[in-house]
Structure prediction request, 212 residues.
Amino acid sequence: MTPADRRARERAETQQKILDAARVLFASEGYAAVTMRRIADAIEYTPAALYNHFPDKDELIRSLCRLDYLALAARFATVATVPDPLDRIAATGLEYIRFAIEHPNHYRLMFLTPPPVDDSAVTFEGHGDPHRDGYAFLRSVVAEAIARGQLRPDLTDADLLAQTLWAGVHGVAALELTMQGDQWVPWRTVEARARMVTDVMLHGIAAQGAKR
Prediction:
């Protein structure tokens, strides 16, 4: 490894350490409450060291958004080869919930906190590309199911359907992350609830006679 390669690797490792610490703090304390100094203290760096990698807090959060949304989209690659669109929709929903459970800080920052920066100022890599944009992937599968006549004939708005399906699986994920340890409700497993909600939603929108 050349000195230049070593420096590049060390820089990438430092950036990852900063991003990981920032994600935890933003998700637990809120974007507005967390300063660059607070992030620096969490990883025992100086604020100046952070500014060598990210010019300000807004750029840091934009980097987090880009990376985390791409990470979610990458999970859907595992279900992209499922032949039947209805089965693919169900698999996408289950994969989404698993991502939330396996990466709770990612999920809280992405979907359980208000957008910390003006969305118009953020350029998301791969926006609209089903291979790199999770929403675009789900919408494309829904559109395919519509085109194949697998959904009720009155359901023709792919965006409305995709957003409704997203809301259903988001509810399962959000309850799991926010109600952990709650003893008031005799909770069933998150996997059972995930499968139930996807089955219920698909039975509600599938055309009569469509394979489920």
Notes: Residues 57 and 108 are 18 Å apart (CA to CA).
